[in-house]
Specification:
Layout: H1 5-12, H2 16-23, H3 31-44, H4 50-54, E1 62-67, H5 73-86, E2 92-97, H6 103-112, E3 118-122, H7 128-135, E4 141-144, E5 152-156, H8 158-171, E6 177-180, H9 189-202, E7 212-213, H10 225-236, E8 244-247, H11 250-262, E9 272-274, H12 280-285, E10 289-291, H13 294-309, E11 318-321, E12 324-326
Parallel strand pairs: 1-2, 1-3, 3-4, 4-5, 5-11, 6-7, 6-8, 8-9
Antiparallel strand pairs: 10-12
Length: about 325
């Protein structure tokens, strides 16, 4: 059985702050009390965690970030913002790769290995059970890419982003617009598909389910170049070709672009493409995309965590980030090529 500082305090009949002072070698403990605490530590075979050793110092040294992937470029951009904000702070950055098989179990196992002083959770929907477990941590928590009233939350209006991408294309005269989605288990799929449909409806275009496609590749839930290639190959095989494509991620758009090139077609003369994310590489490729301001969100969310860790805020913040279309050379008016 894993022993905690609370078990030691109960065994010795003292407060946890007293146990913490003993662990940190503080002189503000009487010899008799110190002896009692040390006896409890020995009896329980307690091994102090990082947080237990630092409670008496009133300092915070570790901030954990839990996210589905550290190789997906979207999450890399968010993590850059976190890292930049921590540059001038003496705080260790701990990483938890949630993966896609059972992210909730992975997070629980990570937290059970040892207490963290603050936690940022990225792109993981929070259910009632997980909310209860997180509250038990008694630590500052910020959510990015999901929202829950109990925690500070920074999240995107996914439907609005997809709708604006479609509107950009309909305003250029496109009527047959393909949509490259991610796999169904990604929490953003439904919202972005809803935004795609809203954009078509606003332009008076009938929804055609045949224009919705997902690549077979499952890496990163379909947010990959490989999935983009496969999805574009499907769209190219339709009897009536599309004149434009909205992708759910810039990396999908990169793959779609490659598939069009391999088919002897030109972007944007033959097919216009709009991505989603505004990755750094997208600027160099001149890809029209939906800007999600990932680095900025990472920095701002980290600032909020630091403020909570310092005890400077008491209210709970719910902030919606509104994505905006960045028009570049990959999308042009119908017939402009």
């Amino acid at each position: 059985m894993k022993r905690t500082i609370y078990d030691v305090a109960h065994e010795a009949g003292v407060a946890i702050s007293t146990v913490s002072r003993v662990l940190n070698g503080s002189e503000e403990v009487s010899p008799a009390t110190r002896e009692r605490v040390e006896a409890a530590i020995e009896k329980l075979q307690f091994r102090p965690q990082r947080t237990a050793r630092t409670l008496a110092q009133q300092q915070t040294h570790s901030l954990a970030v839990a996210m589905p992937s550290f190789t997906s470029l979207f999450f890399v951009e968010v993590l850059k913002g976190v890292k930049d904000e921590l540059r001038d702070h003496d705080i260790d950055l701990l990483l938890c790769n949630l993966g896609s098989t059972d992210p909730y179990d992975t997070l629980e196992r990570f937290l059970n290995r040892g207490a963290v002083d603050a936690l940022m959770i990225i792109s993981l929907p929070i259910d009632d059970r997980l909310e209860r477990e997180l509250i038990k941590l008694h630590a500052p928590i910020v959510l990015v890419g999901s929202h829950r009233e109990a925690f500070d939350s920074y999240y995107w209006d996914e439907a609005a982003g997809a709708e604006r991408a479609v509107t950009h294309l309909t305003e250029l005269g496109h009527r047959r617009i393909g949509f490259i989605a991610a796999h169904a288990w990604d929490p953003n799929v439904e919202h972005r598909l809803h935004g795609y449909k809203r954009g078509l409806e606003a332009a008076g275009i009938d929804f055609d389910p045949d224009l919705i496609t997902t690549g077979q590749a499952t890496k990163h839930a379909g947010f990959s170049e490989e999935a983009g290639i496969e999805a574009m190959q499907y769209l190219l095989g339709l009897d009536e070709p599309v004149t434009a494509v909205c992708a759910s991620a810039d990396v999908q758009a990169f793959g779609a672009w490659a598939a069009l090139r391999d088919a002897g077609l030109n972007v944007p003369d033959d097919v216009s493409i709009v991505g989603y994310d505004n990755l750094k590489l997208s600027r160099f490729l001149d890809l029209t995309t939906v800007d999600q301001q990932m680095q900025s969100v990472g920095r701002t969310a980290t600032q909020r965590l630091l403020a909570r860790m310092a005890g400077n805020v008491n209210d709970t913040l719910q902030r919606v980030i509104e994505p905006e279309v960045i028009a570049r050379a990959s999308s042009v008016a119908v017939g402009a090529g």
